[in-house]
Amino acid sequence: MSETVLQACNIRKEFGGIVALDALSFDIGRGSITAIIGPNGAGKTTLINVMSGLFPPERGTIVLNGNAITGRKSHDISRLGIARTFQTAQIFNNMTVLENVMVGRHTKTTAGMFRAALTLPGARREEKQIREKALHFLGMVGLRDAAGLPAASIPIGNQRLLEIARALAVEPDVLLLDEPAAGLNTQETRTLGELIRTIKSLGMTVIIIEHDMELVMDISDMIMVLNFGQKIAWGRPADIQSNPEVIAVYLGEEE
Amino acid sequence: MRLKPVLPILFFSCAVLCGPFFITSPYFLEILIFIGIYSLITLGLNLLMGFAGQISLGHAAFYAIGAYSSAILTTRYNMHFGISIPIALCMAAGIAYIVGVPSLRLKGHYLAMATLAFGEIIHICLNAAVDLTGGPSGIAGIPQMQVGQFVFDTEIKYYYLVWAIFIVLFIMTQNIIHSRVGRALQSIHGSETAASAMGVNVANYKVQVFMLSAVFAALSGVLYAHYITFISPQTSDLMFSIRLVTMVVVGGMGHIWGGLLGAGILTVLPEFLSIFEDYDMLIYGCILLVMVMFLPGGVVRGAEVVYSKLINLIRRSKGE
Amino acid sequence: MSLFSQIVQFFFTGITLGSIYAMVALGFNIIYNATGIINFAQGEFVMLGGMIMVWLSIAVGLPMVIAFPLTILAVTVIGALFERFAIYPMKKPSVLILIIITLAGSIVFKGGAMLIWGKETHTLPHFSGEDPIVILGATILPQTLWIIGILCAVVLMLAYFFNFTMLGKAMRACAVNPTAASLVGISVKKVVLFSFALSSAIGAVAGIVFTPMVLMEYDRGALLALKGFCAAVLGGLGNGIGAVVAGMIIGLLESFGAGFISSGYKDALALLVLLVVLFVKPSGIFGVSEASKLKEF
């Protein structure tokens, strides 16, 4: 049994009167690929938002690498080892593809305003490293040739890959992917699957929200099924596939 | 170190160096001095608005804080510049911090209004605190800058002083833009949520760049005060804050040369317009309106478009 | 004057000022509700109202009864033209661009006014004479009653308009959800145009009734707009009742502040209130926090 990298305990998130997440608890094993699936509105993106610090939960705790991260700000959580992509790509439209990924290196670098303004040699060395790492991760997603292009000018599919490269540049312990395959064709989805396997081989833990069941069943080690903010199933792909509750949720009850 | 970004500023520095050999009239030199002083403010303001994506409609306040601080310290307390100027800059930075932390939590129109209110409050206080600031009559007899026995008392000397300072700060700003900090600022402009998710402490950076732009503005104010040797609240009213913002926008927000261009255009323009006397404000407003409606990317963007069209034209004619 | 009479005096001064700020705030709210835009030229509509009224009734010599509606019409046309020329052509402008456009507009109006009417102050005769009325030991001018009365009339008319007429309801629909509104056949573009027209009309009214009390000059607009905006934000941007209540609060604050503390800083009081509101509760007294976050900024 691999060690636990992320542990969530009794997460509750409410929006006004609506309960989006209800007493959610789970453990994520280090180096695993966990898929979160469930019908629309089940709370998947809300869960990712809580984990990445976009907003705090009403109740519950999240522990990452032994550090409690519940309720901390996004930028702190990023520093502690979580990076994410967004359901609708939030790339930086005002920068180039490469610069977008370079922002991902922010938490791993330190040059502040003074060192930058005076271009001290330490800062310059750091710049070089940032650039090299960014190019490396761009290469991983296959966008190395687009490095100098304005990020807004590349096709949407590539923008999503750019987001992944940017999140990879954070070199997080846990990578949260929010529907990365949305709008991709079969070939592109297959490439994405291989990319995710490569990410796993680098030692990163991946948590992925997806609707594409082929992809999910293909790459996941574990699957968590959410419905109405509750965890209704948790297990290996084969178990989930044959789980009657899961089937009922997706296909409706038998008459 | 890559050569490309260094060339333009190098050319510019040479042009600045040679300028007074071609332009000898004190009147034109003074215009250039003012362009330099305003370019200093717009350099910082552009960083705040164009790169970090914030708004400030009250930057005249920091200009005034710099000018008045140094003026009061050198006239009433007979302090030396070496002390009064750093104090003036620190005052601006401190006030920028106090105002910036709560204000920069706001966005869009709310932020614009908060900065506008702050600017106006400072303006009103400068007029009303007669004992400290001389009220509407301002402060006269401000000593000219001097280093040892060397006094900056002619247009040429002040020209070189102002532009030397500008060039140094320009290079530093350029360095900041092309660094981790510059990218962090731009990421805030691009998407605060994503920036935060990538580890950028959005609130911190907003305040930092606000403080930096305030210090630039205060430095301009100091240079102004010790050049004209007289300041009054009129030089830093709401209209001035608006002029500064429009300099940034007209020149080209988000482009490092935008501030300078805008300062140049909008300093020279009123000189032309003064010919029209009573029509000047009306024409200024119309030009501003038209420019911002049809050239929102500023003159820099317009020049880029013209340049690329020209290149295409040349390429096409070569291809034939 | 006894302390009590002083207080009554300040009170009436306060609600006089407050009425003007309330009207400016209502103008802000109408455009904001329909478009999400803060119209920085709002103060200039007030100024133009005063100036044009002066011109028509004094220079041209029309009787006030005729000059009044003509002035409102003129300023309304100016407001509508401003919308057509400066706002309508813009495709999805950013907040900053919109701010600068309305700022530029205010400079154009100011410059035009300065050109036509110079830099001197102008005044109008009081509507019903200047014989002071004594109430509880304080003397107030009849114009004060005119101002308060006209504010009430404006508020009642707006309430009727927004609740009982098709156009008013259409504007409210646009404020809540422009996409849905256009889907049911409401022309959002027309609503935007009308909101500017209505705002400038109200601004003109404020300018006309105010000019007899204070002298009007070409650059009065900015400070009025600022204080009117304070009232709009304090009351909750977009909230009509809030605008009136907040306008009164600010007017009273200014009046008592000038009376008891110092008159040099009185203008800063309203601005200070604005800053405090923005820092503590930007949605204002009557606003809902969630709603204010939703508005597209």
Annotation keywords:
heterotrimer; A: 255 residues; six-stranded mixed sheet; 10 helices; globular; C: 297 residues; mainly alpha; ABC transporter involved in vitamin B12 uptake, BtuC; two-stranded antiparallel ribbon; 12 helices; 2 strands; 73% helix
Descriptive report:
The complex is a heterotrimer of chains A (about 260), B (about 325) and C (about 300). In chain A, about 40% of the residues lie in helices and about 25% in strands. Chain A is built from ten helices and ten strands. In chain A, the strands form two sheets. A six-stranded mixed β-sheet of chain A has the order 6-7-8-3-9-10, with helices on both faces. In chain A, strands 2-1-4-5 form a four-stranded antiparallel β-sheet, covered by helices on one side. In chain A, helix 3 crosses helix 5 (about 120-140), helix 3 packs parallel to helix 6 (about 155-170) and helix 5 (about 120-140) packs across helix 6 (about 155-170). Chain B has one domain (about 5-235). Chain B is mainly alpha-helical. Chain B is about 75% helix and about 0% strand. The two termini of chain B are about 40 Å apart. Chain C contains twelve helices and two strands; from the N terminus they run ααααββαααααααα. Chain C is mainly alpha-helical and about 300 residues long. Residues about 290-295 of chain C have low confidence and may be disordered. Chain C has a two-stranded antiparallel ribbon with strand order 1-2. Chain C is globular and about 60 Å long. Chain C has helices spanning about 5-35, 40-60, 65-85, 95-115, 140-165, 165-175, 180-185, 190-210, 220-235, 240-260, 265-280, 290-295; strands spanning about 135, 140. In chain C, helix 3 (about 65-85) packs antiparallel against helix 8, helix 5 crosses helix 6 (about 165-175) and helix 10 crosses helix 11 (about 265-280). The interface of A and B includes residues 52, 54 and 83 of A.
